[in-house]
UniProtKB/TrEMBL annotation:
PANTHER family: NG37 (PTHR14905), VON WILLEBRAND FACTOR A DOMAIN-CONTAINING PROTEIN 7 (PTHR14905:SF7). Residues 237-272 are annotated as: Disordered. This is von Willebrand factor A domain containing 7. It comes from Gorilla gorilla gorilla (Western lowland gorilla). Residues 315-483 form the Hemicentin-1-like von Willebrand factor A domain. Keywords: Glycoprotein, Secreted, Signal. It is found in: Secreted. It comes from the Eukaryota. Residues 509-599 form the Hemicentin/VWA7 galactose-binding domain. The gene is VWA7.
Length: 891
């Protein structure tokens, strides 16, 4: 029996009873999974965020049946852990959840970072501490409003950051206030609604706690009905008679009344009210689902899906040289874009985001972004090759602008026939590609051995294209040289690269004369393609059975070979034979070789620093590992397969291999340990300071076995880089207002020895930025702090993205590679006072609890978005039906 429609936010008594039955006996409000080392069995901010998002995604899938596939059935998800892989396999097909899981990871890490960033970790307004409940509610509502503004401006990275901050505060309310102690069984009815004052707040003269000298304080709460929260640390100071937050690191908890009231974890050493952790987690999860539902209602299903990347599709991002010699290249880009738009319109693989940046000399831009394919095609069709035929051009500036506006995990294609005039940006663009995790492919119609076809101001170096090669290497992309007559055929790789392909690791990674390239094929790979380009004399490909195929065009024993000038593409027949394959290439130069395939099995990864000496132990996220610093690598395997047969063995991954880039020398092997149940595919490895002692790029390879014991081998799509220093740049929690002057915080630390550094700043667009720190001398384990002031002009366009970059580079006597920190901000006009009020009526969901099919994982209600609300709706629209499928027992 399916439940009836749910108009709003308050599950009825049966829902709460079922929640009590389904949640584990120990449950968390620590930042992320690493926190569980300090408080095993707790439910973290990460858990709550991911579970809420999965519930709302399932509701969306149930309400909008997939095109060309059977509709999802609610009963298929009852009684088992809700997993992104299962949801996406049922709705889109296997192997399609990678982008969604990456987006959800962005939100979760932004949530956790609130406990670590210097601008947020000690602000009571952002954690509902120190009885600042009204101020906390205002900041929470503001963060949700900013999420909507950023999402509508198509800056989904910033939207996810603000969403993570909002969810952190929302979840903290139930752990840090006494809402649970007051016996409340539902989320607070006014917390998410603007212009609704919180009622019955404790005043400064109202005593709230009695003294408790034990770690566990179940009876320190004074019996009253006012809403309050605990004080943490020394700012603001705790008034007499007030509760502390409590725990090992709360200095206020040693002042009478001692003890505290937080419910962050299951550990009495951290949480004096640990016995109420389960109830607080339950309400925090319900409230998080409400928040996701509100955003869905305000944004609409299409934009909400883009916010969380609820799609298997990639984005389409072009950077186009528009000088007079580029007619063929521009036409090739138009043909490919038109083909992609027409072939994928209305399908799950239709691009969700389009970016176009033209460039020439001396100018570049403006950037054009849209989610409408027709608008993109119209804008692209208006670009023509016009004058300015001399070399070099402002290519890297245009690419930097594209990276600023392109979603993570995207491909960017650069069409040019000129070298870069702005080569000084090379290292910064390399770093930005890794921060954004975007792959850049350059399609260059310039013959590198000749200098004809363009006017030139000077004789150009034969190494002038090295910046493109450096950026391509750092991003996991390629530089493909071709000629005008072949560019249309070579440009076909644009569409093929958007098909969720993985790149197979080669051994060695580059061609060595007389030595074959070796790669492994497993049973989960299909549609393998081999691309070879350069000054090629000959090549052959050999399968594990010894069958080989050469460079001759046409159909051969292994597949179909196509040639366009010095560019070959070999499409292997399906199914490919499993085992070890070889490629032998003879060439005059160093040719490019890439092997790609489609597969359901891939992985995501990120780095973090264990934080064990603060109020919220957890893993502080890093974009790149830092030399000399103990670092955790977290791996998230995607596409582990359907749960239709839960008893089937899952693939097992044992370790990762780190290799130097570009030479491919093995730097080390690190064992992986599972985190949580195996079906989630979460693994962790500890990277020692010795392994990360030298600043350098490296690649990651994931090694394991399939269910039959056969080898599995996957490579990260792009290298990572060990940076010489830790560089943190943080800004305001809200958006930028035109005419304002905004302080930014900078921290730089060395963990690998003395450093003499120059600090440079850059703002895109060119706003005024001043800093009180231009140089730093650091000894081992020493930090320096700086302050920056960003001036936003009155003329700043609302909804425009601002990127602040700080670069720390070694001075002449200390030539260490530069380190970059990036901060994204959004200019937004001051929010208008909202005139809406909360809805005046609601009804409770009806739930069924009788069926024994419910395992300790599942609570379900079903509703329809927008049902049952009065006309006086909140500023973000009506609340969608609440769908709760709780898999918390699996955490």
């Amino acid at each position: 029996m399916l439940p009836t429609e749910v108009p709003q936010s308050h599950p009825g008594p049966s829902a709460l009873l079922l929640l009590q039955l389904l949640l584990p006996p120990t449950s968390a409000f620590f930042p992320n999974i690493w926190s569980l080392l300090a408080a095993p069995g707790s439910i973290t901010h990460q858990d709550l965020t991911e579970e809420a998002a999965l519930n709302v995604t399932l509701q969306l899938f149930l309400e909008q049946p997939p095109s060309g596939r059977p509709p999802l059935r609610l009963e298929d998800f009852l009684g088992r852990t809700l997993l992104a892989d299962d949801l996406f396999a049922a709705y889109f097909g296997p192997g399609s959840s990678r982008r969604f899981r990456a987006a959800l990871g962005e939100v979760s890490r932004a949530n956790a970072a609130q406990d670590f960033l210097p601008t947020s970790r000690n602000d009571p307004d952002l954690h509902f501490d120190a009885e600042r409940l009204g101020q906390g509610r205002a900041r929470l509502v503001g963060a949700l409003r900013e999420t909507v503004v950023a999402a509508r401006a198509l800056d989904h990275t910033l939207a996810r950051q603000r969403l993570g901050a909002a969810l952190h505060a929302l979840q903290d309310f139930y752990s840090h206030s006494n809402w649970v102690e007051l016996g409340e069984q539902q989320p607070h009815p006014h917390l998410l609604w603007p212009r609704q004052e919180l009622q019955n707040l404790a005043q400064v003269a109202d005593p709230t706690c009695s003294d408790c000298e034990e770690l566990s304080c179940p009876r320190n709460w004074l019996g009253f009905t006012l809403l309050t929260s605990g004080y943490f640390g020394t700012h603001p100071p705790k008034p007499p008679g007030k509760c502390s937050h409590g725990g090992h690191f709360d200095r206020s908890s040693s002042q009478p009344p001692r003890g505290g009231n937080n419910k962050d974890s299951t550990s009495p050493g951290f949480s004096p009210h640990h016995m109420l952790h389960l109830q607080a987690a339950k309400l925090a999860l319900l409230a998080s689902i409400q928040a996701f539902g509100l955003l869905r209602s305000r944004l609409g299903d299409r934009d909400f899906s883009r916010l969380l990347d609820i799609t298997p599709a990639s984005s389409l991002s072009f950077v186009l040289d528009t000088t007079g010699s580029m007619g063929e290249e521009i036409n090739a880009a138009k043909i490919q874009a038109r083909h992609i738009v027409e072939q994928r319109r209305g399908s799950p693989m239709e691009p969700v985001h389009y970016v176009l940046v033209p460039f020439h000399d001396p100018g570049f831009g403006p950037v054009f972004t849209t989610s409408d394919p027709d608008s993109f095609w119209q804008q692209l069709n208006e670009i023509h090759a016009l004058g300015g035929g001399d070399e070099p051009e402002m290519c890297l500036s245009a690419l930097q602008l594209a990276l600023l506006h392109t979603p993570p995990l995207s491909d960017i294609f650069v069409f040019t026939d000129a070298s870069p005039k702005d080569a000084f940006l090379t290292n910064q663009v390399e770093s930005l590609t890794q921060e954004r995790r975007c792959r850049v492919t350059f399609l260059v119609t310039e013959d590198t051995s000749r200098v004809q076809g363009r006017a030139r101001r000077e004789i150009l170096s034969p190494l002038r294209f090295e910046p493109y090669k450096a950026v391509a290497l750092a991003s996991g992309g390629e530089v493909i040289f071709t000629k005008d007559q072949h560019i249309r055929d070579v440009a076909a790789i644009v569409g093929e690269s958007m098909a969720a392909l993985v790149t197979l690791p080669l051994d060695p990674p580059v061609v060595v004369p007389g030595q074959p390239l070796v790669f492994s094929v497993d049973g989960l790979l299909q549609k393998i393609t081999v691309r070879i380009h350069g000054d090629i004399s000959s090549f052959w490909i050999k399968n594990p059975a010894g069958v080989s195929q050469g460079q001759e065009e046409g159909v051969g024993p292994l597949g179909h070979t196509r040639r366009f000038g010095q560019f070959w593409m070999v499409t292997m027949d399906d199914p490919p034979q499993t085992g070890t394959w070889e490629i032998q290439v003879t060439a005059e130069d160093t040719p490019g070789v890439r092997v790609q395939a489609q597969t359901s099995l891939d992985f995501l990864f990120h780095f973090g620093i264990p934080m064990e000496d603060g109020p919220h132990p957890g893993l502080y996220p890093l974009t790149q590992p830092v030399a000399g610093l103990q670092t955790q690598l977290l791996v998230e395997v995607t596409g582990l397969g359907s749960r239709a047969n839960p008893g089937d063995p899952q693939p097992h991954f044992s370790h990762v291999i780190l290799r130097g880039v570009p030479e491919g020398a093995e730097l080390g092997q690190v064992p992986l340990e599972p985190v949580g149940p195996p079906e989630r595919g979460l693994l962790a490895a500890s990277l020692s300071p010795t392994l990360l002692s030298t600043p350098r790029p490296f690649s990651l390879e994931l090694i394991g076995q399939d269910a039959a014991g056969r080898r599995l081998h996957r490579a990260a799509p792009q290298p990572s880089t060990v940076v010489p220093v830790l560089l943190e740049l943080s800004g305001p929690s809200g958006f930028l207002a035109p005419g304002s002057k905004v302080p930014l915080s900078l921290r730089i630390a060395s963990f690998s020895g003395p450093q003499d550094l120059d600090l440079r700043t850059f703002v895109n667009p060119s706003f005024s930025l001043t800093s009180n720190l231009s140089r730093a001398h650091l000894e081992l384990n020493e930090s320096a702090w700086g302050r920056l002031w960003l001036e936003v002009p009155d003329s700043a366009a609302p909804d425009s993205v601002v990127m602040v970059t700080v670069t720390a580079a070694g001075r002449e006597a200390n030539p260490v590679p530069p380190t970059h920190a990036f901060l994204r901000l959004l200019v937004s006009a001051p929010a208008l006072q909202d005139q809406h009020t909360t809805p005046t009526g609601s009804s409770d969901p009806i739930l069924t609890t009788a069926t024994p099919a419910f395992s300790p994982f599942t609570l379900v209600t079903q509703g329809r978005a927008g049902a049952g609300l009065a006309a006086g709706s909140p500023w973000w629209g009506t609340v969608g039906g609440v769908l709760l499928l709780l898999g918390l027992a699996s955490w």
